[in-house]
């Protein structure tokens, strides 16, 4: 999706969280060195040597950085397990709003929703009640979140449904009704 920040337009790549972006120009889009990750790691960090960037109060400092990995998925889990990242520092961890159980977010899409006046994510949970079949709704004030709470909106118990993609151009009632599609298969 495209969004502006401080007068510059960017293309964001949510998978499912929007932690990767690049300026929306043909030259920047083609230059991998121009891509930025939304991360709480220091500028000299990599996936093997990840150091959390903290402010003077010890709070993890998230910002856009080039050449530094985003903190999500296995890297986030490793940093939590080691204690380098505190649970309160986690910016990208969804939980079921009803049960409080963690949601293992996989693929999805994010778009601005006029009706909610928030960014809306429609995403897939991997290894939920089925391997690939639970679709969740989450929302945040900014594209980068924080993303914390989600609500399950679709379950496929005997079939798989993955790669959910919103289609805002089909939304009705100014975004009150959201349309999305995905791959529906018996394969998995």
SSE blueprint and pairings:
Blueprint: E1 2-5, E2 8-14, E3 18-23, H1 26-30, E4 36-39, E5 63-66, H2 73-82, E6 92-96, E7 102-103, E8 105-113, E9 118-126, E10 132-140, E11 147-154, E12 160-166, E13 180-185
Parallel strand pairs: 6-11
Antiparallel strand pairs: 1-2, 2-3, 3-4, 4-5, 6-7, 8-9, 9-10, 10-11, 12-13
Q: In short, what is this structure?
A:
The protein is mostly beta strands and 188 residues long. It contains 2 helices and 13 strands, in the order E-E-E-H-E-E-H-E-E-E-E-E-E-E-E.
Give an overview of the whole structure.
There is one protein chain. By secondary structure, this protein is mostly beta strands. 8% of the residues lie in helices and 43% in strands. The chain contains two helices and 13 strands. The strands form three sheets. Strands 7-6-11-10-9-8 form a six-stranded mixed β-sheet, with no helix packed on it. Strands 1-2-3-4-5 form a five-stranded antiparallel β-sheet, with no helix packed on it. Strand 9 and strand 10 form a beta hairpin. The mean pLDDT is 91.
How far apart the termini lie comes to 28 Å
So what's the overall shape? globular
Query: Unreliable stretches, pLDDT < 50, 5 or more residues?
Result: none
Structural class label:
mainly beta
Order of helices and strands: EEEHEEHEEEEEEEE
* Biggest sheet features: 6 strands, mixed
Tally of DSSP β-strands? 13
Strand order of the largest sheet: 7-6-11-10-9-8
Report helical residue fraction. Answer: under 10%
Radius of gyration: 17 Å
Strand content: 35-45%
Q: What is the mean predicted local confidence, pLDDT?
A: 91
Q: Please give the count of helices.
A: 2
């Amino acid at each position: 999706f495209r969004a502006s920040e401080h007068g510059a337009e960017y293309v964001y790549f949510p998978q499912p969280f929007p932690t990767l972006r690049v300026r929306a120009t043909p030259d920047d889009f083609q230059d991998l060195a121009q891509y930025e990750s939304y991360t709480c790691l220091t500028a000299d960090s990599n996936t093997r040597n990840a150091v959390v960037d903290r402010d003077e109060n010890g709070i993890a400092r998230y910002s856009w950085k080039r050449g530094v990995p985003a903190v999500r998925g296995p890297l986030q889990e490793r940093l939590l397990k080691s204690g380098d990242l505190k649970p309160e520092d986690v910016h990208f961890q969804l939980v079921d709003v009803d049960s409080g159980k963690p949601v293992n977010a996989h693929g999805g899409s994010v778009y601005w929703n006029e009706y909610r006046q928030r960014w809306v994510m429609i995403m897939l949970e991997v290894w939920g009640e089925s391997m690939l079949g639970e679709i969740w709704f989450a929302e945040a004030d900014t594209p980068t979140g924080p993303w914390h709470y989600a609500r399950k909106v679709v379950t496929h118990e005997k079939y798989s449904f993955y790669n959910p993609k919103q289609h805002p151009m089909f939304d009705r009632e100014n975004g009150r009704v959201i349309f999305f599609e995905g791959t529906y298969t018996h394969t998995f």
